[in-house]
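agent> Task received from the user: take the single chain below, predict its 3D structure, and emit structure tokens. No templates, no multimer pairing.
agent> Plan: (1) validate residues, (2) run structure prediction, (3) serialize to tokens, (4) report one or two observations.
agent> Step 1 OK, no nonstandard residues flagged.
tool_call: predict_structure(input=
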Amino acid sequence: MKRQALFIALIFSLPCLALAQDEKAEAAALEEAAPEVKEPTLGEHLQEVDKLYAIREAGYGGKNWQAHYDKLQALDKTHPNNFEILWRISRAYFWKSEEAPNDDVKIELGKKGWSYGDRAAALNPKRIEGHYFAALGVGSYSDGICVISALAKGLDGKFNDRLDKALKMDGKFDIGGPYNSAGRYYFSVPWPLYDGDKALEYFQKTLSHYPNNVRVLTYLAEVLIKEDRDAEAKTALQKAISMQPGHYVSPPDDYRFLPKAKALLASIKD
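)
tool_result: status=success, residues=270
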């Protein structure tokens, strides 16, 4: 009877053993078939950052700008002192500083942009980004404390030192950014440093490469108005305002300057 009972128990246990073996085999097969999840590389992370920056909002901050900034801050923690991250953070601070709600915020953002740009330039002085965005940071900081105070503190030297390095590398970088910055310097400083001809020369350099640049058409018009050349200023502003979607050189930048161009045109008396 004992043998018969053992035999019956063995017979009933076989399906269970087979089922268990099948489950193990199935689990192993699924494990082998499951695709390996790879952590994105730093380059892939930066591509995402740049995509978000390309669709940043024209105003102060914005959802896409904030997403790109947050990602940069996270990358800075995991990849400290990385050139590619540092100059992008400097760029982020400058963009936000342009629409700062008050001078104190502009000073703070400008100082941070200046610092991150200098850190990037120290890591790779042969690349333009660090010098250029550090110069923009100095410019925002100077604008925040007012141009006269900035000149008194010698900040024009710090600005021009960084900008001259960028100009020597590539004045067309960032849609003519170094040219634009030089033009704005000669427009913004008081007499005897003010030089309308040099400002116009730099803006025309940008427009020779990027004729649909709304920012620079607006900058150009400001100089022309100051030089009592209102008719030419109106022509530049009308071109900026009449631009059709799809023809902008940088939609976020152009959309930021469209209201400024419209307001400036409205201020010109017939």
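agent> Step 4: summary for the user.
Residues 86 and 120 are 5 Å apart (CA to CA).
agent> Done.
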